[in-house]
């Protein structure tokens, strides 16, 4: 199988989850999706991450994003772990966590760690996952890939920010600069002339011939 890259079709799969069995593409439907992996249940960093995503559930929903967690334990372990996550983080986790004990989905998405990278994340020759993130759009194309080591918890506010940028650039001929936040000025796409940009955007500032900042129309 060819490596997954930006623009690749997200592989479809069937799996058992904490909210019932799913066929991944059908579960995404016409929404955006975030698929993110965890090395194992009852692990400290993962417990904080899933709690954070549960707290951010309204923000993902506001952006029409469906969230899918994944860990390499079975459903019985997942159910007990969700109780811990809810208690420690004071949340009510509702999104599905995929039970990937046989590591079929982790293999499909190349999520597994290696002894060469982190021998503590491989037990008795069996690798656990790294902290992978795949942002997938409504036509099931992979739009963003992030990979963190098991030791480093993810910044889910940054993932939301990235989704904001992706969704905005789908609607407008723009890119977003370093540290951009919603409401900030954007960068005019290099394929758009300054003259044309001034017709599209209410204000355009040319810092360099190839770097033009613009304010978005009010409705965005």
Short account of what is shown:
With 220 residues, this protein is an alpha+beta fold. 30% of the residues lie in helices and 25% in strands.
Structural class: alpha+beta
Strand ordering within the main sheet: 5-4-3-8-9
Kindly estimate the percentage of residues that lie in beta strands according to DSSP: 15-25%
| Major β-sheet profile | 5 strands, mixed
| Portion of residues within helices | 25-40%
> Distance between the terminal alpha carbons, to the nearest Å?
40 Å
Estimated radius of gyration: 20 Å
What is the tally of helical segments?
Answer: 7
Q: Which word captures the global form?
A: elongated
What is the string of SSEs from the N terminus onward?
Answer: EEHEHHEHEHEEEEHEEHEE
Average of the residue pLDDT scores: 92
Q: How many β-strands, per DSSP?
A: 13
Q: Please mark out the parts with pLDDT under 50 across 5 or more consecutive residues, or reply none.
A: none
Topology readout:
Layout: E1 14-15, E2 22-23, H1 24-28, E3 32-38, H2 44-55, H3 57-62, E4 65-71, H4 75-89, E5 97-99, H5 104-108, E6 122-123, E7 126-127, E8 131-136, E9 142-148, H6 156-171, E10 174-175, E11 186-188, H7 194-200, E12 203-208, E13 211-215
Parallel strand pairs: 3-4, 4-5
Antiparallel strand pairs: 1-2, 3-8, 6-7, 8-9, 10-11, 11-13, 12-13
Q: Could you explain the architecture of this structure?
A:
The structure is a single chain. This protein is α+β, with helices and mostly antiparallel strands. Helix content is 30%, strand content 25%. It is built from seven helices and 13 strands. It has helices at 24-28, 44-55, 57-62, 75-89, 104-108, 156-171, 194-200; strands at 14-15, 22-23, 32-38, 65-71, 97-99, 122-123, 126-127, 131-136, 142-148, 174-175, 186-188, 203-208, 211-215. α2 packs across α4 (75-89). The N and C termini lie far apart (40 Å).
